[in-house]
């Protein structure tokens, strides 16, 4: 048995949280989810003395490493008086993680409003009314509703998704740095992604690179999904790294899922019967239009994926004779 360096990647996309507030009919859903995540973090730190925590926020276009804090911020926090009857690491982690997550979340909301104006609460309430009148609305339509009422003319792929590849790269780079710096220390590593937004097909290649890097490192990529959008890439991440992918429909049960499914270490999981996702979505995104495709054409030289047969691979320049292909395949 070894300690674990566990990263928690929280998706802080304001659009994703506005949709979750609407679906769950709770305006303060962020605070509720935060309490469940803090409970998981305390349990994780309390499970073993040599468990270490990493918290990363995934936002539209960027990601932030929130915990451990920068040395200066950590020294400031250490100099503040602490309650004597609380385990110091719980107190520090709770204070820093909660305050940093709240700060970045508010900053993201402010940026989102500045980009389009509007008010979240009114937006969520109006979107809820509209969704109630159209029960067949898809997740994309929901996103468009919420975005429209958040004051943004239309949801761009970037605004509606988060920089998950960037967040995962940070988690993998940090854990690799710890492993390289302490080759004598045996430590397992893993990342738990709290997903609030669908996949961004433009991130297909960097995300798959992260997934294969994690697989090589033996780093589990676990996914706890709180929304209804498509997450083919994250499903593949959990499947390829031998980890769990769980959709939580009712956030009041989030703590239960986090503690039962995602808390046990790799060794303990061998003896547990945990829920698994049977139907993994193995679709890929084409390199030409960044669209998720069910049938793709693969360059036999560089393995790039295209949605239609190409005369010349746009990635490696290999030329192909596609005249022999049935006309129905050429678009
Ligand atoms: Zn394409
Ligand atoms: Zn090629």
UniProtKB/TrEMBL annotation:
Pfam families: Tfb4. One of its GO terms (molecular function) is zinc ion binding. It comes from the Eukaryota. Keywords: DNA damage, DNA repair, Metal-binding, Nucleus, Transcription, Transcription regulation, Zinc, Zinc-finger. GO terms for biological process: nucleotide-excision repair; regulation of DNA-templated transcription. Its main location: nucleus. Signal peptide: none annotated. The keyword NADP does not apply. One of its GO terms (cellular component) is transcription factor TFIIH holo complex. It is found in: Nucleus. Transmembrane segments: none annotated. The keyword Nucleus applies. Belongs to the TFB4 family. Component of the general transcription and DNA repair factor IIH (TFIIH) core complex, which is involved in general and transcription-coupled nucleotide excision repair (NER) of damaged DNA and, when complexed to TFIIK, in RNA transcription by RNA polymerase II. In NER, TFIIH acts by opening DNA around the lesion to allow the excision of the damaged oligonucleotide and its replacement by a new DNA fragment. In transcription, TFIIH has an essential role in transcription initiation. Component of the 7-subunit TFIIH core complex composed of XPB/SSL2, XPD/RAD3, SSL1, TFB1, TFB2, TFB4 and TFB5, which is active in NER. The core complex associates with the 3-subunit CTD-kinase module TFIIK composed of CCL1, KIN28 and TFB3 to form the 10-subunit holoenzyme (holo-TFIIH) active in transcription. This is General transcription and DNA repair factor IIH subunit TFB4. It comes from Caulochytrium protostelioides.
């Amino acid at each position: 048995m070894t300690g674990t360096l566990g990263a928690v990647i929280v998706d802080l996309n304001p659009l994703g949280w506005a949709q979750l507030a609407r679906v769950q009919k709770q305006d303060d859903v962020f605070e509720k989810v935060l309490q469940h995540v803090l409970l998981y973090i305390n349990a994780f730190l309390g499970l073993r003395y040599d468990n270490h925590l990493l918290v990363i926020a995934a936002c539209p276009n960027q990601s932030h490493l929130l915990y451990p804090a920068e040395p200066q911020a950590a020294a400031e926090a250490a100099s503040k008086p602490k309650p004597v009857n609380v385990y110091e690491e719980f107190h520090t982690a709770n204070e820093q993680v909660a305050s940093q997550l709240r700060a970045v979340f508010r900053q993201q909301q402010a940026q989102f409003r500045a980009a389009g104006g509007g008010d979240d609460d009114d937006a969520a309430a109006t979107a809820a009314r509209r969704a109630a009148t159209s029960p067949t609305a898809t997740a994309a339509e929901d996103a468009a509703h919420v975005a429209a009422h958040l004051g943004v003319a239309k949801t761009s792929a970037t605004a509606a998704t988060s920089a998950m590849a960037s967040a995962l790269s940070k988690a993998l780079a940090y854990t690799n740095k710890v492993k390289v710096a302490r080759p004598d220390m045996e430590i397992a590593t893993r990342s738990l992604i709290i997903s609030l937004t669908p996949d961004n097909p433009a991130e297909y290649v960097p995300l798959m690179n992260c997934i294969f890097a994690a697989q090589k490192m033996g780093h589990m990529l676990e996914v706890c999904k709180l929304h209804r959008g498509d997450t083919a890439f994250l499903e593949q991440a959990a499947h390829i790294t031998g980890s769990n992918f769980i959709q939580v429909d009712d956030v009041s049960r989030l703590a239960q899922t986090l503690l039962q499914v995602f808390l046990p270490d790799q060794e303990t999981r061998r003896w547990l019967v945990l829920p698994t996702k049977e139907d993994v979505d193995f679709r890929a995104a084409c390199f030409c239009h960044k669209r998720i495709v069910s049938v793709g054409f693969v360059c036999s030289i560089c393995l790039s994926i295209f949605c239609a047969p190409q005369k010349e691979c746009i990635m490696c320049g290999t030329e192909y004779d596609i005249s022999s292909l049935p006309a129905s395949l050429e678009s």
